[in-house]
Each structure stands twice: as C-alpha cells, then as structure tokens.
Amino acid sequence: MTYTMWIILTASLVSVACSIVGVLLVLRKMAMISDAISHTVLLGLVSAFLITQSLDGLAMFIGAAIAGILTAVFIQLLNSAGVQADAAIGIVFTFLFAIGVILVSMFARDVHLDVEHSIMGELAFIPWTTVDWLGIEGVPQAVWMISIVLVINIILLFVFYKEFKLSSFDPHLAAALGIPVVFLHYLLMGMTSITAVASFDAVGAILVVAMIIAPPATAYLLTEQLGKMFIYSAIIAVLSAISGYYFAAMLDTNIAGMMATMTGLFFLAAFLFSPTHGVVIKKIRNRFTTYSNDEA
C-alpha cells in the first residue's frame, strides 16, 4: 500500500471509530466530554513515561486509558454532587490537562510528548512506525491499534444496541425497565477513552474531538433514525478524512487540522441545506407555503 493510502486508511479508521461513540454522546448531550478526555489523556501518557521510563506503546495506552476513565469518573462525581455538567467538564478538563502540561515541561521536555504534537498529531509520520503481527508485515502500528478499537466499538454497539438506544433517548424509562443505565454510562465513557487514546498519538486531540462531535451532529440534521445516524456519521467522517488529506496536500498545511476543518464544512452544509432542518430549505419552504396560501 502506498504512503498516501496508509495515511488515508488510518484517518478513516479513526473517523469511523470516533463517529460510533460520537453518535451516542451527541444524543446524550455529552459531546464535550470527548474534548476533556482527549486532552486529559496527556496526563496518562506522561505519567506512564515517568513510571516506566519508556515510550512503550502498551504502557502509554494503559496510562492514557486510565486517565481517560478517571476523567469520566471525576466528571460524574462532580455532576452527582450538584455541579452542572458543563462546569464539571470544564473543571476536570482544565485541571488534569494542566497537570499533564506541567509534568511534560518539567520531566519530559526532551521526550516525544510535546504539547503541540498532542494537540495536532502528525499523520505524516504514521507509515514509518510499523509492526509485524499475525504474519502480516509492514502495517503501521496506528492502523493495528485503531482497527482493534474499532472492532471493539462495533461489537459493543451490536451487543448493547437496544440498551444504548433506550438509555440515550429516555434514561428514566430505561432505569425503570431494569436496564443498567449507570453501567452503560461508564461503558460508553470507557469506549470514548480507548478510542481517544488509540487515536491520540496519530491524529491529535483536535481531530479526535472533531470526529466525535461534527459527523454525528451532521447526521443528526439529516435523519431521525438511530441506525441511519450511525451510517451517515461514518460516511461523513470518512469523506472528511479523505477530502481533508487532499486539501492539506494542495495547501501544504497540517493534515489533521484540515480534516477537522472539513468536518465543520460538512456540518455547515447540512445546517443550511438539510431537507428537514436546513435553515435555507426552511426559508424556501416557508416562502413557498406563504405564496401558495396567497394564491388560494
């Protein structure tokens, strides 16, 4: 596979994995928790390095996953104690991320854990770090990691689809029916954490947040059926990744940043021209209705 195709494949896998958890987060009005998790994993990364003095991928993954899950737990604790959800996210996000930044600047300044890389990522380097596994050679490590996480997300979605659906739309009814709402909440937070961690080093925090929020929000404007939301969200995310890469190549700019920009443009298009929710379409429909009533 060519250098370009490895980058596009990696970004596409990230986009689909993020869009799966993103749909559920958007429906639960918890989308911005992805922003908190995708930033606070920096604390987990630098903590793992300080403990092991190694940049081993497994240690980094475990450390970041723990940080992501702790972020979700702390936010839930503050929320349960009466702190508003957005305030709880802001407090935990800024506090843990700031600690991570301080630790990086104090103890890991010369290590590949710089803040700029954490925020923007660098997809251009993905094809150079390969791992031979299952008899397959030359596959980038990021592709293996993200593929595994994507499979896990798909399996969990199929196994708990009905439970996720009901608890997302009506958590009180779900609890009354005996569905483990709290378990599903932390399961979703765990899915979000491992997805962000697996994507973090490859694409950076900005693209992770963009892919988790923008494609599902766009799909939400295009359909009211949950199954179609997952499909539309994945398609929009992949299109954003592919178009973002080629625009970045044309303009000689950051790949992840351009992909995130494309997710915003797709959302803008849906916001304006969605058949049911589009602002422009609604105005045209209202004018047509007014004109028809005047003619009658």
Automatic annotation (TrEMBL):
Record keyword 4Fe-4S present: no
Membrane topology of the entry: Multi-pass membrane protein
Keyword Cytoplasm: no
Transmembrane segments: 6-26, 33-51, 57-75, 87-108, 142-161, 173-196, 202-222, 229-249, 255-273
Gene3D superfamilies xref list: ABC transporter involved in vitamin B12 uptake, BtuC (1.10.3470.10)
One Pfam short name: ABC-3
SUPFAM superfamilies per record: ABC transporter involved in vitamin B12 uptake, BtuC (SSF81345)
CDD domains referenced in this protein's UniProt entry, alphabetically: TM_ABC_iron-siderophores_like
InterPro entries for the chain: ABC_BtuC-like, ABC_TroCD
Subcellular localization, as worded in the UniProt entry: Cell membrane
Record's keyword terms, sorted: Cell membrane, Membrane, Transmembrane, Transmembrane helix, Transport
UniProt-listed PANTHER family: ABC-TRANSPORTER METAL-BINDING PROTEIN, METAL TRANSPORT SYSTEM MEMBRANE PROTEIN CT_070-RELATED
Family as reported in the entry's similarity comment: Belongs to the ABC-3 integral membrane protein family.
Designated name of the protein: Manganese/zinc/iron transport system permease protein
Native species: Geomicrobium sediminis
